[in-house]
Amino acid sequence: MKEPSAVADPPAVVDVAMPLPELNRDMEAALLQSEEGADVTFEVGGESFAAHRCVLAARSSVFRAELFGAMKESTAGGGKARVDGVEARAYRALLHFIFTDAVPELDGKDQETSSMAQHLLVAADRYNLERLKLICEDKLCKRIDVSSAVTLALAEQHRCPSLKKACMDFLYSPGNLKAVEATDGFEHLATSCPVILRELIAKLVAL
Amino acid sequence: MKEPSAVADPPAVVDVAMPLPELNRDMEAALLQSEEGADVTFEVGGESFAAHRCVLAARSSVFRAELFGAMKESTAGGGKARVDGVEARAYRALLHFIFTDAVPELDGKDQETSSMAQHLLVAADRYNLERLKLICEDKLCKRIDVSSAVTLALAEQHRCPSLKKACMDFLYSPGNLKAVEATDGFEHLATSCPVILRELIAKLVAL
After folding, report:
1. Which part of the chain is the BTB domain (chains A, B) (predicted)?
2. So what's the ipTM on this one?
C-alpha cells in the first residue's frame, strides 16, 4: 500500500458511451407513428392522418391559427378536418417534416422526387413552413430541365425568388426556350402567369 | 439572339440559403415556454410546470405509463400532479431536455453544475431517460474530486457503471481515499452503500 499523500491524485479518464440525440426519433416513432395522444384527424385525398395539435401549432403559425382558432370547435372530440388541394402523399411528408425536421421523401433524384418537391412546396407555403419550402425550392433548383415551365409557374405563384431565377436563367438560352415552349407546361405557364412571358420577351430581345 | 440548339443547355447553379433545423427551437419556444395546448401541470417544490402529455409520453416510458395510465384521470381537466423528491430546478432542466434533447444547465464547470448533474441524474433515472442519465454520468465522471463520495453513492444507487469506475479509480489512490474519508459524504456513503466499503477494502489490500 502506498504512503498516503496530502494532495489528491488526478482521476483517470473514464469515457461514457453516448447515444445520439433521440428527439427526432421519438417524435416520429412514439408520437406521429404511434398516434398515442393524437387529438386531431385530417382527411386528405381519401386517407386519414392523426396528429397532435400542440405540435402542429408549435411548428406552423397556420396550424396554430386553425387548430386553436377557427377549427378549434369543429375538430374537438374526434371531429375530422377535411383538407382539399393537397395530395395524401404530400400531406404525409408534410406531417413527417413537422414532427422530425426531415424530408426523406426528397432524397431521390428521379421525376417522382421532383413531383413530390412541387407538391410539398405548395403545401409548405400553405402552412407557412418556410424552411420546408426552401428545401423544396433547393431540390427543384437542381432539377431544371425542359419540363420546368410548370416549376416556373410554381415559383411565381409561391414567391420563390431563387427557383424563379434558376428557371429564367435556363429559359434565357434560346435552345432551351424552344424545347420548353413546345411542352404542355408552357401552355399552363402562359395561362397562369402571363406576366412571366412579358419578362421573358423583354430579356430575350435585350440579348 | 443566339441560334436555337436542339439540346438543352445545362442550367446555371442557383443556391438557396438554407436555415438550420428548427424542431428543437420550436419545441422549446412555441411549445414548452409558450405552454400553448399544455394539458398537464406538475407541482414541484412549490413551483408549477405546464407541459404537453403527448410529448412527455413519447420521450419517457415512465411518463407514458403515468399520464396515459395511473394518473390519467387525476390529471385530466386541469388537475395538478404533485412530484416529490425532485428539486424544481432539476425538474425544469428535465422538461427542457425532454422537449429539446439539450441540457444547457450542464454547460458549466463549477460546483453548481456538478450539483445539478447529480440531481438531474436521479430524475433521469426515475423517468427512464437513459440518454440524459448518461449525459449526467459523463459530466460527473469529469468532475471527480475529494467531494465525490456522494457521487459514488449515486452511481451505486442508480446503476451507473462508468461513474462508479471513475470514483473507485480515484479512491484506489490512498492519498485520495484519506482526503475523501474525512468528508461528510463518506459518512453518507458508508451508511447508504456499505457494500462499496467492502469493495474498496478488498481492492486496497490487493494493491
Report:
1. 38-107
2. 0.85
